[in-house]
Amino acid sequence: MNNQSEVRVRMAPSPTGFFHVGSARTALFNWLFAKHHKGKFILRVEDTDVERSSEEMIDVVLQGMEWLGMDRYEGPYFQSKRIDLYKEYIKKLLETGKAYYCYCDPQTLDKERKAAYARKEDWKYNRRCLSLSDADKEKKDQSNIPKAVRFLVPEQRVTYKDIVYGEISRDSKDIEDFIIQRANGMPTYNLACVVDDHDMGISHVIRGADHITNTPKQILLYEACDFAIPEFAHLPLILGPDKSKLSKRHGAVSLDEYKEKGFLSDAMVNYLALLSWSPGDDNEDFMDRKKPENLGTVDMVRLAKEFTLERVNKANAIFDVTKLEWMNQQYIHQLNHDKFQELLKPFIIKHGLMTEEILIRDHQRYVEICNLMQPRLKTLDGINNQGRYFFKDDFDYDQTALQKFTNRETLTIMKTFLPVIQDINPFEVVNIEITLLSFGKDHGLKVKQWIHPLRVFTTGTKAGPPLFDTLKLIGKQKCINRIEKMLKQKQES
Ligand code: GLU
C-alpha cells in the first residue's frame, strides 16, 4: 500500500450534464477528509467516455461545488487532455505482454454474451485474439479491422482492505480480459483512472460503492504498471424511500433541482454529510453557533475536524426529503435576517410576487413579510405556496378549511366584521388587534368563532403567522375585498 504521508484525494465526475446528489456527497466526503488531514482535494473530469462533453456539463459540477462551499481544489484536470499519457502506459503493457490487441467484433461478442446469459451461463471473453500469430495480426491490420486493447488478467486472488467495507477478495478467474483501449483509440475508464490516480499521487480513493466491482481490476492494473496501490474507501449507495437506488423516479436527484427549490447550501451540506456518516456523539446538528451572525450557516471546520472514514457506516443511506426539509427549515429559521431577505428575493421575483422595483419601493413591507415567514418556510421556494396571499389574490384555498368555516353562522359573523375592519384607522397591528378583539367580546363571540374564518377568508389557510400582523401586511382594502368576495360566492351558492 501507498506509504506517502500527504493525503491527496480526488473527485472524478463523468460529465453527465447534471450533478447527482450522490456525487455531491462523494465530493463532500473527499473534501472533508482532505481538510481533516490538511491534504489536497483534486478535481478530475473523466470525459473520455463522452461523445461530446460540453463545457456546460462541466460547469454544472464546478458551480455545484462552489455552491456547496467546496471552492478550493486542485484542477480541474480533464482526462480528454491527457490521452497521450494513458497511451504511453497502454503501449508499455502491450510491449511487456500484459495486454494484447483484440480484433473481435464487439457486436458479435455481444450476441455471444447475450446468448450465454439466456442459457443462464456465465460468459467471459475467451481470449481468442491472444493466440493470433503475427501473420494473422498483420493480415487483419492490412484489412483495417478495428482493434481494441485488452488487459491480460493474471490468475490470482485480489484482496484489499476497504476502509468502509473491510476485506474484499475476488478471484481473478471471474474477471475477463477487459478492454483498456477501445477500437477508436480512446482509453477506457479503468485504465485512465489508475494512471491518473497514480500520476496525481492519490493516497485514498473515496468513491461510490457502485465502483466496488472495478477495484479488483484496477488493483491488477496498478500491479501490472508497478504503481503503489492507494487506500480504498467505498461509500454506501444512496437509496430512495423504496430502498432502490436513488434515481429520477424518486423525484429530484440533481443538486441544481434542490437549489431551485430553495434549499440552502448549508442545510444541504449538513444533510449530505450525514448520509452514511455520523459523528462520534451522534449530534447531527452542524450549524455554526460560534457567533450570532454565523447562525444558519454550516460549520465546515467542525465537520472536517470530526470527519473520519472509520465512522462511515456500511449500511446504504436513504435520501429522506422530509428530513432534508426539516433541516432546511432549521437553517432558514436561524439565518441572519438580511441574508434571508437577500436569498428569498430571487424566489419572490421568479413567482412574480414582487418585481425588483417594488422590492425597492416597498422594502419595509417586504422586510415585515420576511420576518413573519422566515420561521415558517421549509424551503425558500415555499414562499409561493405558503405566503402568496401577501402579494396576490390568486392563492389557493384550503378546501377543507373553507368548507368548515363557510357555514351560515361564520358567514353572518364575517358580515358583521366587515364594517368594523373598514373603520380601523390606521390599519396597524395594535389597532387591528384591539378593535377586533373588543368587537368580538362586545358581541358575545368567542375568539375562535371569528378568528379562524377571518384567516381562511383572507389567506385561504387555517394556519400561518400571527393573524393581525398578516392582515396588516395584506392591507385593509384587500382584506375587505377577499371577505366580500367569499361572502358573495357562498351566499350565491
Ligand atoms: N467517473 C466515475 C463516476 O463518475 C468516478 C470513478 C472514480 O471515482 O473512480 O462515477
Summary, kept brief:
This protein is mostly helical and 493 residues long. The chain is built from 21 helices and twelve strands. The chain has helices at 21-36, 55-67, 83-95, 106-118, 134-142, 189-199, 214-225, 255-260, 265-273, 300-306, 321-334, 337-350, 356-361, 363-373, 383-386, 399-404, 408-422, 429-442, 447-459, 467-474, 476-492, and strands spanning 8-11, 40-45, 74-78, 99-102, 148-151, 157-162, 166-171, 179-181, 204-208, 231-235, 238-239, 317-318.
Question: What would the keywords be for this entry?
Answer:
493 residues; mainly alpha; Arc Repressor Mutant, subunit A; three-stranded parallel sheet; three-stranded antiparallel sheet; elongated; binds glutamic acid
- Mind describing the biggest β-sheet? 3 strands, parallel
Mean pLDDT: 94
From the helix content, strand content and strand pairing, which structural class follows?
mainly alpha
What is the annotated CATH architecture of the domain at 393-492?
Orthogonal Bundle
List ligands, each type once: glutamic acid
Shape: elongated
Beta-strand percentage range: 5-15%
Describe the protein's architecture and organization:
The protein has 493 residues and is mainly alpha-helical. Among the domains are: 336-392; 393-492, Arc Repressor Mutant, subunit A (Orthogonal Bundle), CATH 1.10.10.350. The protein has helices at 21-36, 55-67, 83-95, 106-118, 134-142, 189-199, 214-225, 255-260, 265-273, 300-306, 321-334, 337-350, 356-361, 363-373, 383-386, 399-404, 408-422, 429-442, 447-459, 467-474, 476-492; strands at residues 8-11, 40-45, 74-78, 99-102, 148-151, 157-162, 166-171, 179-181, 204-208, 231-235, 238-239, 317-318. Strands 1-2-3 form a 3-stranded parallel β-sheet. Helix 12 (337-350) crosses helix 14 (363-373). The chain is elongated and about 105 Å long. The model has no long low-confidence stretch (mean pLDDT 94). Bound molecules: glutamic acid. Glutamic acid binds at residues 12-14, 46, 193, 207, 211. Glutamic acid (GLU) binds at residues 12-14, 46, 193, 207, 211.
